[in-house]
## 1
Amino acid sequence: MAMSKENKSFFWAGAMFFTALFFFGFSNGIKISPRLQEKLNNAVKSTFGVQEFSLQLIEVSKELNSKTMVELGGENLFAVKTNQQIIGYAYLGQAPSMKNIFDYVVLFNMDMSIKKSKVLIYREDYGRQIGSQRWLKQFIGKKTGDELIYAQDIDAIAGATISAKSMTKAINDVLQSIEIVRESNTLK
């Protein structure tokens, strides 16, 4: 029995979505490519208003990582330092879009409230609206303990529903995970 063109499209879209979820859910952290590193550096410079800084990797134990909602066992969580002083924190993550994944960063103030979030690399033609600072500014000031609900606390975006929901969930998961890490006194 042959599948119709519509069923084939649905099948492949589903297969790609679950492949992205599999990759996202079971990766051992992000390996930072030169392009991603450059975008991360630019985000840190513009957000914290510094030209010279270092990113100090915060190592999270496997046991603690197993309690978090997001992966913290790779090159994901950093203290942002200038002149050997911590000025904030950065979480580098990935989230699924409709057919692929996108890379994002959440930059934190010292009190662990969100200073800025930014989509660094988006790999699809549709849904790019989530990279707009106008939309992303909704996350600024959110703290651990806050729970964000898409289309209620966070504005919906026509044409980017999957990516916008994914980014909202990712921010919620990051906030919950940062609280777990903070309670463990792992943050330096």
## 2
Amino acid sequence: MYTSLRIEVNNQNLAKEERAMINLANEIIAGKRLTREDDLSILLTADLKELCEGANAIRKALCGNKVDLCSIINGRGGRCSENCKFCAQSAHHHTGCDEHGFLELEELVEGCKVAEEKGVDRYSIVTAGRTLEGADLEKAVAAYKKMHEDYPEMELCASHGLMKEEDIRRLYEAGVTMYHSNIETSERYFPEICTTHTYEDKKEEIRRAKAAGMTICSGGILGMGETWQDRLDMAVLLSELKVDSIPLNFLIPIPGTPLGDRKPLEQEDILRIVAIFRYINPDSYIRIAAGRNYFPDGGKALFEAGGNATITGDMLTTTGQNTTQDRSMLETMGFELKAKRA
């Protein structure tokens, strides 16, 4: 049965909380892991500067200075049967998004080639729709095999909805090492965001991908109307699922979707969220995705609050930072990046 986290917000002296954040960070570095049984209120009330400093210390100690760059390509766009309220590609909404069938192998492989030349660590095909099967599955398997043969140093990721385990295994055998399936939000709030599939469907997909041999990329979108408790619940569930990479998207309201008029999160809230996810998932990739444009400098502060991975280049339906800009910013900050291919 789903158990909500305990949140006990109190009026402790801020100075005491700040010291507690440094102490907590040191405990996590030494091996402590936060769980549903812990009182996590300090993460909500701590001074933001202290919280981010502690998160960055955890990142440095447990993950080092390597930043993991991922590029994605929209392998099949639009006409999605699912009714996720945030998504421009849902057939339930009217957004005017680009609609196209599964891309040709040559275009997918060319995208991988460009990503390799730019020093990107991971390349992922993402497809709209509930699942991937039939002719489109065969095209995907062929594309992954070709990319793995031509660019063996590129980590291949896949994001194709709720697939069968035997089909995921075929992707693994074709060279895919990571499967992406966002849980999106907390279990409590998920029915407010999507009703065409369930939270248990999401968790079961993660289990199937693990059983097929994949590592897991799963996070979600923040700023959809969820509470801070929902954010904590989400972070802890990802820890319980032992997710390797956690993409954090900060809602960019898209006209034509039910969330199109929602006010974006404030910078301070975004930074607190990133830091919280680092405290609760200390040795995972905290992957900064959509929403970096809310910061004037490409989101430098996000990588000083525990972030150590990002999606670089354009997102599926919104614009992101280009890879040249990202490399310049991250190298200036002292991070290590995969070398560009000559």
## 3
Amino acid sequence: MREISITEIEGLRIGNAQNKEAGTGVTVLLFDREARIGVDISGGGPASRETPLASPLTADNPVNAIVLSGGSAFGLAAGDGVMRYLEERGIGYETGYAKVPLVCQSCIYDLGYLRADIRPDAAMGYAACVDAERNQPSSGSTGGGIGATVGKLYGMERAMKSGIGIYAMSVGELQMAAVVVVNALGDIYDPENGQKLAGLRTEDGKGFADSCQELYKISQRKDLFNNNTTIGTVVTNGKFSKAEMNKIASMARNAYARCICPVGTMADGDTIYGVSMGTVDADINMAGTLAAEVMAQAIKKAVQSAD
């Protein structure tokens, strides 16, 4: 098992676009190969587009792109720009009258970071696709993660900055990568040693408070700060069906439990997509375990690389 660059996964291109002054942005994953996806939604408030495409109960059509953006539900407009970019290049599902690009999307709530009146739009989604032509993705405060924060039990005043994290590994011929925007209600921990990396600060701002312990104190409170969501994608060159990718996505959620506390609350919209776009035969149990490992490392990178 070794770390690799996410750009080693053939057929995957990643691009970013952002508005630094507004503190919001878009990350797009474009699939140049046939991609079958699954999804795991564990949070109570997801903002999403076309997620039923990931269900084993729907048609087994390849997906062309996944978008991770800011802007809450307003940010879903960025997907229109991604569709326009793909349509211009003749990419999409053939309906007989037009090719319709199949684009899934999830959004974080970042309206409370800098500005609430500027959100990702179609132009920003298109710009992220153009940036994907360079295919030089990096972790940190960029793209869909530029407005990400963590530790928001008591609002933005005691929160800390986060971002987007990227990590990839290989086991033999099997490659697995994770891209995640960490915008959690809870605190973030190192999956290897349990050390707290970021999260809720004390009232004087000089140290960490414990979000779980603070949550226990306000069990009767109804106005829990709900402007959160950790959204991510695991991508593999393994050959798996939609049903299998749903299972792998659900196994990748173990990384959220290892690294984020509390997690999956009604104040989060936590979502993980799983993407298969290769021909490598692999055991689903091993692949799901590896997916959780790369996701945990990507979460760590998201907070360690943030501005």
## 4
Amino acid sequence: MDKEKLSFEEAYKQLTELVQKMENGDMPLADSVAAYEQGIKLKAYCEQLLKEAELKIETLKVTSSGE
């Protein structure tokens, strides 16, 4: 996963697909562990993007209310 090039939507889609595969229960244990690790990274990346977006919105609110 090249997180630097993933949009939030792409990362979230990958995370959702991983969860669905894991929920099916058809994956071998090693693959499930690898998918879980990848899912943790994708989750953290999505949270980071959301936090950045939230900070931008807050900055815009402060900037626009100060005019």
